[in-house]
Amino acid sequence: MRGMVTRRAVLRSLLGGGGALALGGGVGVAQGYRFGVTRHTRALPGLRAPLRAAFLTDLHYGLFIGDGSVGAWVEATNDLRADVILLGGDLLDARLDAVPPGLLRQLARLRAPLGTFSVWGNHDYGSFGRYGARHYGPARPDWMARRERFAQELAGAGVTVLRDEGRPLRDDVWVGGTDDLWFGKPDAAAALAGAGARATLLVTHNPDLLPALPRPVGLVLCGHTHGGQVRLPLLGAPMVPSAFGQRYAMGWVTGAHDTPAYVSRGLGLSGLPVRNLCEPEVTLLQLSPP
């Protein structure tokens, strides 16, 4: 799969760089389950009143993540009193026939007056059965029907999935979301259609879409990379699942048309149940008029 990190590749990089010492004694596992809140203040063109947006991405509910982790993330998010909550995809990471009831219960607890919105990520598509793997089992011919059923179940929990579409949050701000870059057909133009003169927020799982943005966007929010998930002193991340290497690994970056974007380190775990020097994060964006 394009750019996908394997357990073997990560382990080989860690051992070659002395990372085994950094992860010894369960330290890497412990770091995988501690998280923090990162806060960012930024002006958003077109905004007429302040907006607080919470961004959570890469929950990866399933293999290494369960109700306890998601519940803690939900509580921390609700404490931020955000106006809107945005989820950056890879909600699921499990072989399953329906969205797990535990995940739905936890997501239903999210509270934001302007709503909760999500996009799909590549691991969501594995959970639908779009592709086969040891973790997900064989590909399923009914994966599209399963995707729609999952979207309906999430809607029942108060989470609206945006797949190449958008919504007005207020008279002055529009939120759009694209399909996954690896296994969907992302259309940023469709996600932003109807925005007009409003301030624009675009959520897309994979930051590799940034160079292909069809027009300027006020702010793009991405996940997928986990910041590399394992970072080594001085060396950074041995592996980043991006065609652009370290360029979009994490933090503030720039896309086409000088569009600002934030790439979150995410919350869950993929490949290996460890992190190092790469704390999981809930992101609060305090946006203001220019």
UniProtKB/TrEMBL annotation:
Pfam families: Metallophos. The keyword Hydrolase applies. Keywords: Hydrolase, Metal-binding. Residues 52-227 form the Calcineurin-like phosphoesterase domain. CDD domains: MPP_YkuE_C (cd07385). Transmembrane segments: none annotated. InterPro entries: Calcineurin-like_PHP, Metallo-depent_PP-like, Metallophosphoesterase_sf, TAT_signal. This is Metallophosphoesterase. It comes from Deinococcus sedimenti.
